[in-house]
Amino acid sequence: MAERVPLPPGTRIEWAGVYEYWERAVQRLWLVVPATLLIVALLLYWNTGSVIETGIVLLAVPFSLIGAVWLLWALEYNFSIAVLVGLIALAGLDAQTGVVMLLYLTLAHRKRVEQDHMRTPADLEEAIVEGAARRIRPKLMTVVAMTAGLLPLLWSDGPGADVMKRIAAPMVGGLASSFALELLVYPALFAIWKRRSLS
Length: 199
Prior knowledge:
Layout: H1 18-48, H2 51-58, H3 60-74, H4 81-114, H5 121-132, H6 136-154, H7 161-195
């Protein structure tokens, strides 16, 4: 605009309306998003008492961004404040699914340690299979229940539906991808972490 529209001296161009609202909201979100992630990390650390376990659970956040971005692209939703709110809410849901996964891995490991069946890498592998693969049903039920609660928002119609769809979409897509990647990556990271205690 400045290159194509000559302005008389003493005048300026200022964008207003939706653009101005977006700029103000983005400035606030630069504070809200890091604060939210920090609160989630502190709550996880308070719950687990371990920096490593907290880090493993927080890995669900980048895993979930994959599904969130793909579903937003498939639904042709643009980046907006509603989408950002959905991504913030997704961080909390990710922490919940990550805690469930890590809980079952930890319980299976602890049970074998108490029974003195944790001496070799094969014992560790059996504990991980028990914690991850054999207990997939309660973990799947957790994700399905959360997704089932969000699906009506994606199918909603009427006043406010456009905003609610854009809040729910990143959560639904993110839950799907984070659950799948947690089943593949969490057990491997848990094995690397616990294998050091065998030597």
